[in-house]
């Protein structure tokens, strides 16, 4: 009989039933909508279909959120992927549901979580902590975060895995095909095969908090002393497979940042971009999970970045190859872009569809937000349109995209960039993104105050970037 862990179904049969029931119910309701559409006008039909899609999205988020484990992680992966046109009120409901998924995941009782902490630490709570708040301050796909105080007075965040989550994740990985069928109803542009591969590789790593602690220490060393990026230090001796203890940082969460004035939101958005994109293009080690629950705006104006369970290291050679492709796109060199993609194995040189002109036309639309030297406001609707051009059958470039192959080693990087773009779209921020990216791609001097603030940090080598990599590209 499947084991039950205080509200979390861990057996594959029960969890398959949850997802299967979701898919069956969605299919039946979608069929009903189509049937009723026969008697509706074109306008009413479109409105009913959009309304049904919004309701389906809400239900999917609710079910996946309650399941936790890999199922909820798939929901997080797709939480910023465009879901197609919806009425304004439906979009608001959907965004609210996503906020619940990101920030208010169902909680497990502290009695059960305490057992996990004491088992991993090998000591009673009172022997390690002077004070421990039993109310979780955050909840994620595979664990909860608590605030505590060490015996020496240091304030810490204690990240604890849900009991039984390992069994739940294994069951979800076996059910990945069913889960992704459900997700396709929420995000038509979701690449099911690529997402399945990504989730299987990364979620298993996230179960080991010692692995995450190692990643976080590496990032903290790289960014220590940076003018506006903060990575909390890890308490190594208190971090184990299911428990991770790190420095506690306070700040405004994403939903509060969204309510700030234009200048403050623009500044925060640029800090987010510079951390995630800069991590990839400067040092080849980046966080692949840039959802809003993972960063805060601190009182002193700096941004704190949290959660390093999903990271990736990329060789300098690969980083330079990817940067070279983007440089050729910005220069409008279709032949060179095509040649680079052929060398990467992304396109067939003899394919009559993926011609240099067709490929360049596609990339031009994808890169519209940073293609030209101009200020661009990343509004939600605009970003949604960009997401369609990135990999959705509704795009006019779909025949080209169907024949392109994204190299496995580049998959997490592209996902990171897309999710960062989604975050910026939710902030409704404005900047000359073209000039910012030129700093990394061509070695141009900084074009913003933030860029100038961090210039000395990187060129001095304190952040680990070799000064030679900042040389201007001819």
Key terms:
disordered C terminus, single chain, disordered N terminus, 5-stranded antiparallel beta sheet, alpha+beta, 474 residues, 3-stranded mixed beta sheet, 10% strand, 20 helices
Brief account:
The protein is of the alpha+beta class and 474 residues long.
Describe the structure.
There is one protein chain. The strands form 5 sheets. Strands 3, 4, 5, 6 and 8 form a 5-stranded antiparallel sheet that branches. Strands 7-11-10 form a 3-stranded mixed sheet, with helices on one face. The protein has 20 helices and 14 strands. The chain is of the alpha+beta class. The model is unreliable at 1-20, 79-86 and 466-474 (pLDDT under 50). Among the domains are: 4-105 and 166-202, no CATH class; 312-470, no CATH class. The longest helix has 26 residues, at 12-37.
